[in-house]
Amino acid sequence: MATGERPLNEVAFLTVAEVATVMRVSKMTVYRLVHGGQLPAIRVGRSFRVPEQAVHDYLRESYVGVETA
Fold it and tell me: Is 38 left (phi over 0), alpha (psi -120 to 50) or beta?
């Protein structure tokens, strides 16, 4: 296990619908992010599960600040 990683039994996974709700986007947008490699996910049968921390990391990295003159 790499430094800073939590054991899998401590990782919270979200469904695509839950991720869409948190991000306030459509499920299709979440699928595009997963298939595009921008949001890591694991496949469980025909469904995807996204680590909760990955959602928080994605949102933090995507934040666009407004500069004032």
Answer: alpha
